[in-house]
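TASK: fixed-backbone design
INPUT:
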């Protein structure tokens, strides 16, 4: 089954932090333009209509220093944005590599939060671990985006369809297990390499989750 045919991917909106950085970069770029305009106006005045007592070289030097600081700040923001994008790309790649594990952990989170006591947690967790190995469930997971798979399994197995919450819990567990880089990408080691299940298709070997 073709994932692209069964589950078209919509373009995700930019993250609030990414939007703020982009806005700051636009402001800094405009500030740099204003510095250049002021410097050009100062040069024109110095050449064409110089004013008595005005130290034009000093004025231009002050503007140039301010411009350098603006450009340095712009470079810093751009570098931070690039690092965040690299970290996000690395995290997204890891999520794709461990697609089936992420779905399984999300469903285990749903089972845990839906249970009244430890005995029910154990029973539901055992059921989830058994069900995700069934051929029809494996096919659903392989053919669908993780959000779609989790939503479908929640409906099928009677769990609350709180997909975002279950996936957040799954990602937290994957970070703790070392399968997923943190969101900021700081102090992360390379995650474990998924094992190939078949030629042309990587299928992760999940850890023992019960």
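OUTPUT:
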């Amino acid at each position: 089954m073709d994932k692209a045919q069964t589950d078209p991917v919509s373009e995700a909106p930019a993250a609030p932090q990414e939007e703020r950085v982009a806005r700051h970069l636009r402001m800094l770029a405009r500030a740099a333009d204003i510095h250049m305009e002021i410097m050009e106006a100062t040069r024109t005045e110095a050449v064409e209509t110089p004013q008595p007592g005005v130290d034009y070289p000093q004025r231009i030097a002050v503007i140039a220093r301010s411009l350098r600081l603006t450009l340095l700040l712009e470079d810093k923001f751009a570098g931070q944005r690039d690092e965040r994008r690299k970290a996000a790309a690395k995290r997204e790649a890891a999520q794709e590599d461990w697609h089936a594990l992420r779905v399984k952990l999300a469903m285990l989170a749903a089972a845990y939060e839906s249970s009244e006591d430890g005995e029910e947690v154990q029973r539901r967790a055992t059921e989830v671990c058994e069900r995700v190995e069934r051929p029809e469930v494996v096919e659903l997971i392989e053919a669908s985006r993780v959000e779609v798979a989790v939503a479908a399994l929640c409906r099928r197995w009677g769990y609350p369809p709180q997909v975002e919450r279950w996936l957040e819990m799954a990602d937290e567990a994957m970070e703790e297990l070392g399968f997923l880089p943190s969101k900021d990408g700081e102090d992360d080691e390379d995650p474990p390499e998924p094992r190939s299940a078949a030629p042309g298709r990587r299928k992760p070997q999940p850890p023992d989750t019960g």
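COMMENT: The chain has a mean pLDDT of 78.
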